[in-house]
Write a structure and sequence with these properties.
single chain; 562 residues; Glutamine Phosphoribosylpyrophosphate, subunit 1, domain 1; five-stranded parallel sheet; 44% helix; disordered C terminus
């Protein structure tokens, strides 16, 4: 049984018992589907079906076998469960959940808020509904299903060796989206990623760019956006902000398939995206941070590889830029490398169960229980601790760089798919060139420790696209929406306190409303140490729980809704 959400673009071919379909933005010709597509399905070469340009789902059938895959990032998600009529798979967890009769998994949601979703990549937030992680496909045969690795990364290369392939992949992805339309929209935040896409797309089509500005936005970002727009000679619209655009000013316009931070900025999106409504595609730089560069996990990754000297040198450079002593930080890195993921997650579980959250900043950690740990009840600590212990045993040990790369990629993919849902009522169709499979594969073929260079910001971008202006690739900073978040919390603190009190996570005895309320009060009061990011995550999770997709509208027939 299939439980799909509706979609607009489908290509299908069939020859005897073999069929192949692609759903979404797939730039493959019907001739290639007939030849390479059907041949791959006959031979069970499932990975081949994920190598065409664009962002799409692939579905192939051969006899009683059906293979389904989304994209590597999980923006094209895939879920599976088992109901009374057998295996149910679909592109939305809520639809599969409605088909199999399952409810939200509040314990797992609490664990996500406390420790991060990356520790349970194969579980959805509905009980009994599995998520097929990005990098895997689903193979269904009769009443059985299994996941199949379709990662397909090329052999590892250095940054200099792989840069040209990254530039080609990103250019082709961006132009592919742009050239399908007479004019495209684009986010233009002033950062490197969105600016790069605007410059690439403007060489092929007129671009209508939008920027959120105003007194609470970063003046540096706004200035950079204006400079890029002038350089590219494109139409540029600047939203001046205001109370209606602050966080929590407006409810999300539609239910999403899972919690998303974007639910808090519905007013902002409605305002700044208005000029982009009605265009065939809207380019965003979402995901660029993840694929172009890597995190401080590289210090641990290098040490795991036995490259002690470069690990120590890179850490020292990082510490020097932040005016920190490298000695204590080096001890953290050594401890993380020695523990490995399993040991670190077990250790974190013990800290949570014993209420020993110390709040000490870490260079990087496999599992970093955040300030939301202090909101757990005794029951919540026990439940979350056990979930982490299970994860420590179920998920294999990997290198720190690969673990962090894939965790961040899947997090960005989830955010993108929820954004698509939220933008639909605005008549805005976002696309994400940095998350296309070809771009992801080209970037991640360059290992994490290669994509990070001491003292440089996103060195891969300049190497991949050397014709970009140096005043852009040389930028070293990026503003945040922190002031907008704080203003929204202050303006709407009464309704947010009510949201905390009524939260199903509180009602289920997993979290303590008094502790959360106290931290919310501190945040509204402007205390620098208040956990604003954790509060936003908790509050948007509550918004999701209060606005779940209506099961009554979910199709449960065998026919796909696509």
């Amino acid at each position: 049984m299939r439980a799909w959400h509706t979609c607009k673009t489908v290509q299908s071919v069939r020859e005897g018992p073999v069929s192949v379909s692609v759903i979404g933005d797939c730039r493959v010709s019907k001739a290639v589907l007939w030849t390479a597509g059907l041949a791959a399905a006959r031979r069970g070469r499932w990975e081949d079906l994920t190598r065409w340009a664009g962002s799409y789902w692939a579905v192939a059938s051969h006899g009683d076998r059906t293979f389904i895959a989304g994209d590597l990032a999980g923006a094209r998600a895939l879920f599976v469960g088992r109901g009374e009529r057998g295996v149910v798979w679909g592109t939305q967890a809520s639809r599969v959940a409605a088909s199999v009769g399952s409810d939200p998994d509040l314990a797992l949601l609490a664990a996500h808020i406390v420790a991060g979703a990356e520790h349970w990549p194969d579980r959805s937030l509905y009980e009994g509904v599995h998520q097929v992680p990005g990098g895997s496909g689903l193979l269904v045969q009769g009443d059985r299903w299994e996941t199949v690795d379709v990662t397909g990364l090329p052999s590892p290369v250095t940054l200099s060796e792989g840069a040209a392939r990254v530039g080609q992949a990103l250019t082709e992805a961006t132009e592919g989206y742009a050239c399908e339309h007479d004019e495209v929209g684009a986010d233009l935040s002033g950062g490197l990623d969105s600016s790069t896409l605007v410059l690439l797309a403007s060489q092929r089509r007129p671009v209508r760019a939008v920027t959120y500005g105003g007194r609470l936005a970063s003046a540096e970002d706004t200035g950079f956006a204006a400079r890029v727009a002038e350089y590219a000679r494109i139409e540029h619209h600047l939203c001046e902000g205001g109370p209606d655009t602050w966080h929590f000013a407006s409810p999300p316009p539609v239910p999403t398939d899972g919690p998303t931070l974007a639910a808090a900025i519905a007013g902002m999106d409605a305002a700044y995206l208005r000029p982009a409504a009605g265009l065939g595609a809207h380019l965003t730089g979402h995901g660029g941070d993840v694929v172009l560069e890597s995190s401080t996990a590289t210090f641990v990754d290098l040490l795991q590889r036995g490259e002690r000297r470069p690990a120590k040198a890179q850490l020292a450079d990082w510490a020097r830029l932040r005016d920190q002593a490298p000695g204590p930080l080096w001890r953290q890195v050594k401890a993380s490398a020695a523990l490995g993921r399993g040991g670190a997650v077990e250790e974190a579980a013990g800290m949570i169960e014993g209420a020993r959250f110390d709040g000490v900043p870490r260079v990087w950690s496999w599992c970093r229980p955040g300030p939301a740990t202090g909101w757990l009840t005794a029951h919540g600590r026990s439940v979350v601790g056990q979930l982490l212990r299970t994860s420590a045993q179920d998920q294999p040990d990997v290198s720190a760089g690969a673990w962090d790369d894939w965790s961040a990629l899947r997090l960005n993919g989830a955010a993108a798919r929820h954004e698509v849902t939220l933008y639909e009522p605005l008549d805005v169709r976002p696309v994400y060139p940095f998350l296309d499979n070809a771009v992801v594969r080209a970037c991640l073929a360059i290992p994490a420790h290669e994509r990070r260079r001491g003292g440089e910001y996103k060195p891969l971008l300049g190497a991949a696209l050397p014709d970009l202006p140096t005043w852009l690739t040389g930028r070293r900073s990026k503003g945040s929406f922190g002031p907008v978040l704080l203003s929204g919390m202050r303006a709407h603190h009464t309704q947010l306190h009510r949201l905390v009190t009524a939260s199903p996570l509180v009602q289920a005895g997993l979290m303590d409303a008094r502790q959360i309320g106290a931290d919310l009060h501190r945040a509204v009061g402007g205390e620098a140490s208040a956990p604003r990011a954790a509060l936003q995550q908790f509050l948007t999770a509550c918004l999701w729980l209060g606005n779940l997709p209506n099961p009554a509208t979910v199709p449960t027939s065998k026919a796909a809704a696509c």
